[in-house]
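Example with several molecule types.
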Amino acid sequence: MNKQTGFNVLWLQSGGCGGCSLSLLNAESPSLLHTLEDAGINLLWHPMLSEETGSEMVALLEAAVAGTVRLDALCIEGAILRGPRDSGRFHIMAGTGRPMLDWVRDLAGVARYTLGIGTGASYGGITAGGGNPTDACGLQFAETERGGALGEEYRATSGLPVINVAGCPTHPNWITETLMQLALGDFTEDDMDEWQRPRGYADHLVHHGCPRNEFYEFKASAEGPSQLGCMMEHMGCLGTQAHADCNTRLWNGEGSCLRGGYACINCTAPGFQEPGHRFQETPKIAGIPIGLPSDMPKAWFVALASLSKAATPKRLRQNAVADHIIVPPHTRKK
Amino acid sequence: MSRTIVGPFNRVEGDLEVQIEIAQGEVKEAWVVSPMYRGFEQILHGKDPRDALIYTPRICGICSVSQSIASAEALARAAGVERPRNGELALNLIHACENLADHFTHFYLFFMPDFAREIYRDEPWFEPVQSRFKAVKGRAAGDVMQARAEFMHLMGIMAGKWPHTLGIQPGGSTRGIEAKEKVRLLTILGGFRRFLEQRLFGAPLEQILEIANQQQLDDWLAAGDPAESDFRRLLQLSRDLQLDQLGKTGGRFMSYGVYSLEGERTFRSGVWYQGKRKTLNADRITEDISHSWMEGQAEPQHPYHGVTLPDADAKAGYTWCKAPRLDGEVVEVGALARQLIDGQSLVNDLVTRSGSNVRNRVIARLLELPRVLIEMEQWVRMLQPKEPFCNDSGVKKESQGFGLTEAARGSLGHWVRIKNGRILNYQIVAPTTWNFSPRDRHGVSGPLEQALIGAPVREGEKEPVAVQHIVRSFDPCMVCTVH
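Resulting structure tokens for the full complex:
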């Protein structure tokens, strides 16, 4: 692979935690490097993996901006810090004296595709939480508002807007599969949802494949941490609304937030970091959760919930509030 | 003397710039710059304390679990909640998995690739080192990533995912482990052990831990082929390049101790200076902002009372990092400090002979792999399926608490004060805040700034490779440093 023939990817870390890079390293079977190599993807530079440091790396950035090195995909991880007072000084790229904000704008101007890696780079995310002390935003959004660091009208040279591989962190395969589809020329604007997320994972709900589905069906709910029941009613779980394939794709072999025993916090969505209530508690009005499952009419939900509650088998009612199975499924004897 | 600016530094976590003055072929002065600020302490102000469990792991993608552990411990102390034994064991396993994966990643992906740089082309070991450790292209990288990803399956089972789990709670772990999962955990540990024994050490882990002093280490190096053991290769490079003479600090060490079980810590806490170990008094920790882009604090403050208010125009400031001090003194933290304070015999002998340096830091880190993995194998066996893993925890309206733990790269502390059931003040002091601290109000430099003084500059070098080795020997995490 070389810079002439491969699909050139440049990866920079902005105002985030680096967790999407670390998650990327979890790619397996084959490992990340073998996956990229086989797909003809050439890592021009990645902050955790590349040899080049200091002036060697700055020279590479300058060559990309000047167009002497082709930039196929610009991956930006972490929110863009615009403060204080629009100066971008909360994040100066080391060794250059220039705000990351300016580097990102220059590089995005020459990139064939620009990707926001993680919810920070996509919408602002955690760094934009609380009073947003650094005036953090995403590449093309500030939370749900279009604009962000590059502006609503921005298009990469391919004509595509920013591709938001949102997630806090992202799943390694959300990144590798998006890059591979781009390298193949298979990815178009139709492959993005309204928040510009790849539909490959954003057309699914976290609820799909949740191993607690039976508890959900009968509204047999967990009331405390480590209990087995559905976490929607009391524990703040947003899996029925969150766009991602976490429970069909799985993380680190066989995990997901729900399989780990804790609530989905909808981390692929703009504004997830400020839900307006305590994360691990479901807000309710008159005992009914405010956030209903996606596409479900409220009256139906209420009717079905009360019906299924009335029909909850004893097994589910007891297991829901236990931290291991105490009542096994009944065996029918002939 | 003109100042050379080295950055951006990669193969570290986050953004780092180092400024140095060079004369007579060596570094004379150094300034360490952390060029990014996000403001977690400001973001947390006024939130429900339990929401810190969502925010604080996202300070850092590489020390994510350590942040959760420190936060959960601070909240547990504030709420007065205890953990069932299964909960302690589960949290130790999750935490140890992250710490070992970090050591492993650091050695293969961050530290060793610098020896495959062109500047070492004429060294007798260059060819084999380049073919194995070259960044991205070396043969080790792909295999190492696969082994790391498989080891991380422990996270998939016990923590849902990594990084950024919410499974770590004040009262324990949200994930009960069943008997069938217990044996799968043992299988995962077995796979990782095999990689360490076959590739990293080229020997059974127990045998590595029997090496008790430098003489025995030298004998062990001489007894085998560096091509069959990456640890031997490191020792060979260290000897040839005199890495034990590189990157020395003042030699005062601190560890908070880590892996709690039934009132004890598997690695004990303490302070070490000139051969003597003392008890740690965390009340004596302060943060100084005299050389930081910070305001709002005239005197150094204990974290319960400290503030974090950015001021990009602060006159004497040159970094977003504060300067933490213990009893007013600079301390070095990390695997070397942790193993020294715990009394590990080889580390003790190495430090007694040559103090704190690049070689000793890297050896101590690698020794933690067998030490901790063997503990993990025991912890899994001790798990009792069907017994509780988590106690429920509320919040006391007026309370305070602190959580002290060890990330891979050193001591991490959270301090929280709660008023009206909300966070009044939350302060975080991270490992690299200690190690990469700027000068304090007395003009005293932090460990890295000290370690860089005297670093040799080879003919024609603008960004000395010795500086690269020294910086990376601390395994810095810059996103934690400032947060």
